[in-house]
Design a protein that fits this description.
Layout lengths: L2 E3 L6 E3 L72 H4 L18 H13 L6 E12 L1 H7 L2 H21 L3 E6 L2 E6 L8 H27 L4 E16 L5 E5 L1 H13 L5 E4 H7 L3 E9 L8 E9 L2
Parallel strand pairs: 6-8
Antiparallel strand pairs: 1-2, 3-5, 3-6, 4-5, 6-7, 8-10, 9-10
Length: about 325
């Protein structure tokens, strides 16, 4: 049987494994968010800045490690060996990648049945689908984490994820990945609708609105500033299985998901930014502000980007 040696702990893993069975380390050579080739044993992508192997803070009993890493199936906390983190990296604040309870509690009953049916059938594995991808993260979270006790920051992030997750499920999207201070959602897999781009925009608008009172509450209590920013793009992905926690296992075609990530990275706090492939599908349903061209790695010309202002009706 072919094996894959983890560059972090040197354990043997199946050739098809994405995460190390021992330490949870990301095994594939390319970044799962922007598809850039990674340096060996990278903890962060040096192109998009995403954390590849988020640590689970063990000081809070509410954290469920299965939500941050699908390779972890027990209730033991994942901590990378000290030798895998350089002194420079160890000083960098590690964002939390968890929600206080399982994703199931946020899922409407009807959507739960649809997701479980898709998981049980397993018929879409390896299928190419046009989906609308939504990246959402907390701008300012790294600076805020430096000022707070880890338990306080865990509580804040759990609350923020609640406000980010609920709108995704409200419009029958699927959580593809939770990481650090961000999430990636799919609209169009495994459940497809004729108006998936519209649903993604509506979910984004609801996230922006839902987080406002929570931000004010946290600012008053802890005197820190943060806000969500959202990037959306529509394109091809290769669909994987629906996991036991009802998240999607996925393999994304690099160009489409890279552009979605770039939309999020260049969005202003408190805004939703979409690429042209999404804009052209729903431009008659929402008010937009044209942002001109955005530079994206791998593109010879800047790509058009638009900020969502609100619904037209």
């Amino acid at each position: 049987m072919d094996i894959h040696h983890c560059s972090n702990c040197h354990s043997e893993n199946r050739a098809e494994a994405r995460f190390c069975k021992r330490c949870g380390f990301w095994l594939l050579p390319n970044c799962p968010f922007c598809d850039t080739r990674l340096p060996e044993a990278a903890l962060f992508c040096d192109q998009c800045g995403r954390q590849l192997n988020p640590q689970i803070v063990s000081t809070s009993p509410v954290l469920d490690p299965r939500l941050s890493n699908p390779s972890v199936t027990s209730h033991s906390h994942q901590v990378l060996p000290p030798t895998s983190i350089s002194p420079k990296e160890s000083k960098r604040p590690q964002p939390i990648a968890a929600v206080g309870t399982e994703l199931r509690q946020y899922i409407p009953e009807e959507l739960m049945r649809k997701l479980q049916a898709a998981r049980d059938q397993g018929g879409m594995v390896g299928e190419r689908r046009v989906v609308t991808m939504l990246f959402c993260d907390l701008k300012g979270s790294t600076a805020a984490a430096e000022q707070l006790d880890p338990e306080d920051w865990t509580e804040i992030m759990n609350g923020a994820f609640t406000h980010m997750i609920k709108p995704v499920y409200r419009y029958e999207g699927t959580i593809a990945r939770l990481m650090g201070d961000a999430l990636l959602a799919f609209f169009g897999a495994p459940i497809a609708h004729e108006d998936d781009p519209r649903r993604a925009i509506l979910a984004g608008l609801d996230i922006v609105e839902a987080i406002k009172p929570y931000r004010e509450q946290i600012q008053e209590r802890y005197h820190i500033e943060f806000d969500v920013r959202i990037g959306i793009n529509t394109g091809l992905v290769v669909v994987g299985a629906v996991g036991s926690d009802l998240r999607m296992e996925y393999s994304a075609l690099g160009d489409a998901i890279n552009l979605a990530a770039r939309m999020e990275q260049t969005a202003q706090p408190g805004t939703i930014q979409v690429a042209y492939d999404t804009y052209k599908l729903i431009k008659n349903l929402f008010e937009f502000k044209s942002l001109g061209g955005v530079t994206v790695k791998g593109k010879s010309e800047p790509v058009l980007a638009y900020q969502v202002i609100g619904r037209k009706f």
